[in-house]
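Issue: copy button drops trailing tokens. Both records pasted manually instead:
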Amino acid sequence: MRVRTARRSGQIGVAEAVALASRVRASGGSVVFTNGVFDLLHPGHVHYLRDARALGDTLIVGLNADRSVRRIKGPDRPINPEGERAEVLLGLAAVDAVVVFDDDTPHGIIAAIQPDVLVKGADWGPNDIVGRDVVEARGGRVVRIPLTPGQSTTGLLQRAQKPSR
């Protein structure tokens, strides 16, 4: 089942994400949810999102809003504004929908969407994954995906700031 959902700005609201999840489940499909900043997309992100999508029929990505990113990562982030980050994510075949959230955690959006599978990177401890309680309470599962070695936004930023030879 392939569903492409976006507004002109490249993102949908929570109510639209909930409706999408309901349609997918009504047709016998499963909904996968992951979240993050996804500021400077690199191959590690692409692998992670592809692997997440393979766990179900529809992948909804929760994207931290600019204000949320600044609170979490500091005043110099994000590099790219949320609308552009959403548009780039939607350009990936693995991503079906992007919903931007302004909270520090995605707990509220996970509670609203009620995904069948919640995905985070393996750098997150099993008990540190926000929304785990919601997903497991309804019989869903939480999957930690291994990160691609040598791929990180921090590393990318460090390489970009190095003087060229």
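Record 2 (pasted manually too):
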Amino acid sequence: MADEQSVEIETVAAPAGAAGWRGARRQAGYGLSVLLVMALIALLVGAVAAGLQARRDEARSADVLLIVAPALPSPALIDHAFEIYRRRYAPGVVIVGAGSEAMRVALLERGAPEGTLQAATPSGAPVAALQEVAHSARSAGATSALIVAEPAEMVLWLKLVGDSGLRTYGAPPRGVAPGPVALLRASGQYWRYALFQW
């Protein structure tokens, strides 16, 4: 009789434990699905924000003009940066990014006087270099910055420079529409900076 009871208890206990594991796995799968959907929504919202900012020209007077130059600055970016410089929106011009020297040379070739352009030596990733330049500008008394950069990346640079305490305005090249891949990449970079500061 005692043996029969122990067998009954064992057969009942085994399915309850298996059901518990199945329930835990189901909840973990559900939680992971929710996290993935939230990450996808955040990525899409960031891409939409980057796309909207890429079309917004906020060119106006500021204390400093920051030009963010990728490794190979596009002709559209170089032409637009020179046009913004030529209109004298800001007394000081700082060029930062992997292509800062190439951008400086291109602007000099278009007629910008050498003493007016400062190419910041990259001290690491573009995010760190621009943070350093923005903090230096703030320390020197600047309160606002006009940023010229590739359209898809504008939302990131506005956030980053704004976090240093400067009022920021964006002036992306006109007529350059970033594609969906560029916007998704820019969204990923934005969220990486916003969440992890790198």
